Amino acid sequence: xxxxxxxxxxxxxxxxxxxxxxxxxxxxxxxxxxxxxxxxxxxxxxxxxxxxxxxxxxxxxxxxxxxxxxxxxxxxxxxxxxxxxxxxxxxxxxxxxxxxxxxxxxxxxxxxxxxxxxxxxxxxxxxxxxxxxxxxxxxxxxxxxxxxxxxxxxxxxxxxxxxxxxxxxxxxxxxxxxxxxxxxxxxxxxxxxxxxxxxxxxxxxxxxxxxxxxxxxxxxxxxxxxxxxxxxxxxxxxxxxxxxxxxxxxxxxxxxxxxxxxxxxxxxxxxxxxxxxxxxxx
Length: 282
Description:
- The protein has 282 residues and is an all-beta fold.
- It has one helix spanning 256-259, and strands spanning 4-10, 13-19, 22-27, 32-37, 42-48, 53-58, 64-68, 73-77, 83-88, 97-102, 108-112, 125-131, 134-142, 145-152, 155-160, 165-170, 176-182, 189-194, 199-204, 209-214, 220-225, 230-237, 243-249, 262-268.
- The chain has a single domain, classed as 6 Propeller (Neuraminidase), CATH 2.120.10.
- The chain contains one helix and 24 strands.
- β19 (199-204) and β20 (209-214) form a beta hairpin.
- The longest helix has 4 residues, at 256-259.
- One of its GO terms (molecular function) is calcium ion binding.
- Pfam families: SGL.
- Residues 12-249 form the SMP-30/Gluconolactonase/LRE-like region domain.
């Protein structure tokens, strides 16, 4: 599939969200959250969340929530343009907080690295939940929990980057892992999003592709090839939520802040995948 370059000169874009007609994302390494106007091609820096901005979401009143990965916390960007504490995981997690899903009822789900991916053997950690300001850790056993998306009112799907799998989790009642879908070895699933036909579109950090995974049967298709790039997240957008925006950068982060290799590209899905649309915000 042919792509269109939408935004460039970014260090490391992730956490793509379509919100109120604009594309939002975190430049993780720069610690900046952007609102991106796809109609004009302009990037608007919204807020600095140093040293590392990660997952994004919004409260029911429209306030922006941002994961600060290194500090292992969520901050709220208030109407007065000040940041305030929203949730803190540092007493339980020794390693970075990661991506996040904010449900319509303001329940928040957040993953953690659980280990140092540069030098440690992968180990499992628990998924955090924030409910009315209270933090608990109801789902254990996730290896580098990364992208999180809602499937329906009862289930979410979580990408486990260094386990090469997706975990489908029941979120009502007592949260638990319902089933897991094994991906090809070396897939490294990162950000993901769910479409209206029951498939997850999964960015492969080091796999140079977007997978389309049937969440019921487990069937896997390499839907989009993106050679020579790290592929870190994807989100549906556009007026009909039928465009797939994809965050890419260099797989070597060493000089990302200097060279700004990050790009956001767009794929029109209507021809190859007629009728496929997103489910709204992740």
